[in-house]
Specification:
Distance between the termini: 8 Å
Number of domains: 1
Radius of gyration: 17 Å
Structural class: mainly beta
Largest sheet: 9 strands, mixed
CATH architecture: 3-Layer(bba) Sandwich
Shape: globular
Number of helices: 3
Bound molecules: N'-Formylkynurenine, zinc ion
CATH superfamily: Putative cyclase
Mean pLDDT: 98
Order of helices and strands: EEHEEEEHEHEEEE
Low-confidence stretches: none
Strand order of the largest sheet: 1-11-9-5-6-7-8-4-10
Length: 208
């Protein structure tokens, strides 16, 4: 059996976050000496830090929240494709990629090089890709980028179009070492009832 590979960003107190967003902080809020028996930690973070999923409520007040998302989509077969040096991620960029039977598509762009800092710009997903992916049966799109839209976008066209076609969004993956091919994915969100997004521990293992 192939081993599970972690494709998540490590959650350290200096992890790069969206400019202006809540910094990540883990601390022991009640230590051994104070409690007499245990260390008890506390986490402060944005729901869009590190490797995470978006719920439609992130960009639509009427949209589904994390608890409403279908957990089936976050576990199961996934295809990893490599699109290095792309300016954007559209139908053209995926034209050579075989999507037959692909429900979960993970795209490695390698364009977020310095993980210590939040990127200045990223290749955005073109909104037209949503319909194309949907026609091919894709229900989850994961990327090694902090967003599917340009970082300065306020309209978030890719987020909205992916949602319109029922495609779930997984962001901030670490795919640097991952060869293209077929894998099994597990990247479950937390059961956050009110939330617009959730951190995930994303792991894959090679199929076959
Ligand atoms: N759309 C991005 C997050 C995002 O837009 C954002 C995250 C935290 C603080 C501000 C953000 N966007 C707009 O100012 C994402 O899905 O992770
Ligand atoms: Zn997000
Ligand atoms: Zn997003």
């Amino acid at each position: 059996m192939n081993k599970w590979i972690d494709i998540s960003q490590k959650l350290t107190n200096d992890i790069a976050v969206w400019p202006g967003d809540t910094p990540f902080c883990y601390k022991v809020s009640w230590n051994m000496e104070e409690s007499g028996s245990v260390n008890v930690g506390e986490i402060t973070m944005s729901t869009h830090t590190g490797t995470h999923i978006d719920a439609p409520y992130h960009f639509d007040n009427e949209g589904k929240k994390v608890i409403d998302l279908d957990i089936q989509l976050y576990i199961g077969p996934a295809r990893v494709v490599h699109l290095p040096n792309v300016k954007s991620i559209g139908i053209k960029e995926l034209s050579e990629v075989n999507l037959d039977g692909v429900t979960r598509l993970l795209i490695r762009t390698d364009s977020w090089q310095n993980r210590k800092e939040f990127p200045q710009s990223i290749p955005p997903v073109e909104p037209e890709l949503a319909a194309y992916l949907s026609e091919n049966g894709v229900r989850l799109l994961g990327l090694d980028l902090p967003s599917v839209d340009s970082l300065d976008s306020k309209e978030l066209p890719a987020h909205h179009e992916l949602n319109r076609f029922g495609i779930h969004i997984l962001e901030g993956l670490v795919l640097d070492e991952i060869e293209p091919g077929d894998y099994e994915l597990a990247a479950l969100p937390l059961p956050l009832v009110e939330a617009d997004g959730s951190p995930v521990r994303a792991v894959i293992r090679k199929l076959g």
